[in-house]
Write a structure and sequence with these properties.
The structure is a single chain. By secondary structure, this protein is of the alpha/beta class. It has a single domain, classed as Rossmann fold. 47% of the residues lie in helices and 12% in strands. The N and C termini lie far apart (72 Å). The protein binds NADP nicotinamide-adenine-dinucleotide phosphate (NAP).
Length: 334
Amino acid sequence: MSRYVLPVSVFGTVVGCAVLLKNHMTGGRCPSKATINGKTVVITGANTGIGKATARELAQRGGRIIMGCRDMEKCEAAAKEIRGKTLNHHVYACRLDLASLKSIREFAEKIKQEEQRVDVLINNAGVMRCPAWKTEDGFDMQFGVNHLGHFLLTNLLLDKLKESAPSRVINLASLAHLVGKIDFEDLNWEKKKFDTKRAYCQSKLANVLFTRELAKRLQGTGVTVNAVHPGIVATELGRHTGMHQSTFSSSILSPFFSMLVKSPELGAQPSVYLAVSEEMEGMTGRYYDVMTEKEPAPQALDEEAAHRLWEISSRLVGLEEEGQSAKVDPLAEG
Ligand SMILES: NC(=O)c1ccc[n+]([C@@H]2O[C@H](COP(=O)([O-])OP(=O)(O)OC[C@H]3O[C@@H](n4cnc5c(N)ncnc54)[C@H](OP(=O)(O)O)[C@@H]3O)[C@@H](O)[C@H]2O)c1
């Protein structure tokens, strides 16, 4: 037997498994061909990655797209590129820093003043495994941006979403919620040693709990809300991880890794599916793994935790004193 047979067959098996795994994780394109002419989409973190690809596809489908980003140079450049590629001129860059409650309020106010409707809100922006950074208001960066920022933004836009009903809210969660745990005693990592992985998982579990509680509070309004794991996508999300920082990882491991993961265009398909597809009409409070509905982790089904997280989040972002966050309708509750 040639000495090359074993290494060649091992290599073949690895590549074969990689391709099968990639196909499994990819999930394909959104099956719906629906267009969204006359509809307005607000999408956060749309200057790169999944958000930019989602904005582009929804612009292609005729929507009026408001891209909420913290870096206006990158946002203007992305909006210009999307306008050029789709020939849809209704693609706008707008300043939104989810690490600042003030910026979120200014962004929401601008939308409320200037937009006649909001048909789709895609809470897409995210930060993963950054150092122990704090937001402008002193929250842990991952909890603050991924959960609290979107919690406030959504609540501030609810009246607009209700006026535009049927309308949809989409929360980009992650498979990472499976190992997430909400530490109600120390949401912002002030009492225990900071663990950046656990902080990301906590924030993504918060996205799923928020989705369920909001769906409950929006019953009967015509506004639906769902959470989605987009799959494993080649974006800048890993910018704070070792993978992006070491030369070995970026030059040797990265090309292999990219065989396994999908492009931002494919990574955007689940968000597009939830935003436009006919099958999603009336669906709410659900969790999607790419484009398939799945039951989330048991801790994401804990109604008491979802309610508690809502109450604490309202207080932290200052909605409680304004009485502005969505209430549970006692009639809809049954
Ligand atoms: N990629 C994956 O495999 C994967 C898997 C599961 C879930 N997700 C989720 O998918 C979503 C999109 O991630 P991605 O993979 O496209 O990552 P990405 O390429 O890093 O894009 C993240 C976006 O969020 C923005 N952002 C970060 N902090 C912000 C802030 N304070 N205010 C406003 N915008 C901010 C970023 O803006 P800057 O460019 O200015 O930083 C960027 O536009 C995230 O919620 C992520 O958790 C991704």
